[in-house]
């Protein structure tokens, strides 16, 4: 009956490297995403707009009160790249992001 704490400790020790590698993968991914988004390429712009979907949802849900740097960058990309959205307001652009533009 005393084996339960030992099994739990062993499970935690085995899981620790998985958590560390998961964290390392997350930070590496964030770093490479920043590099490609800043490269000025169309695919980097597309990725930036796609990654702003959650921020766009918050913006729409808050009736325009919640803004983030990522959302602002995506709105700027849409304003520059999409002729139909050049004269649109930020709420329309945020909805376009949510629609997958």
TrEMBL record:
Species: Pseudoxanthomonas taiwanensis
Protein origin, superkingdom: Bacteria
Keywords: Signal
InterPro entries named in the record: CHP02448
Residues annotated as signal peptide: 1-20
Residue segments, region Disordered: 25-49
Entry keyword Acetylation: no
Name of the protein in question: DUF2388 domain-containing protein
Keyword match ATP-binding: no
Pfam families: DUF2388 (PF09498)
Low complexity compositional bias, start-end: 25-43
